[in-house]
Design brief:
7-stranded mixed β-sheet, 0% helix, single chain, 4-stranded antiparallel β-sheet
Length: 116
């Protein structure tokens, strides 16, 4: 089992940037594919970005493509989400998810608020 802790959220003006981090416990971080999701008030949780175990493959939601970058450092047990050119519609609680062997593990989330 892995435990995840997100950080880096906050309040930023439209057009600004934030970098989210998700730190994982344990020694087997490289066995997990990692994802970032977000959930805005009154909306369903949606996938934002995915990165494979080695970091060689990444996927993005169309709404963030070209603005967000997911990366990971397996030596530091951490996955990142660099968010640039932020828009008010990016406002949400952002969660990281670890997936392995059919099991999903979630962090507690970090709030991102983008003001117009």
């Amino acid at each position: 089992q892995v435990q995840l802790v997100e950080s880096g959220g906050g309040l930023v003006q439209a057009g600004g940037s934030l970098r989210l981090s998700c730190a994982a416990s344990g020694r087997t971080f490289s066995r997990y594919a990692m994802s970032w999701f977000r959930q805005a008030p009154g909306k369903e949780r949606e996938s934002v970005a995915f990165i494979s175990r080695s970091g060689g493959n990444t996927y993005y939601a169309d709404s963030v493509k070209g603005r967000f970058t997911i990366s990971r450092d397996n030596a530091k047990n951490t996955v990142y989400l660099q968010m640039n050119s932020l828009k008010p519609e990016d406002t949400a609680v952002y969660y990281c998810k670890a997936t392995a062997n059919g099991n999903d593990y979630w962090g507690q989330g970090t709030q991102v608020t983008v003001s117009s």
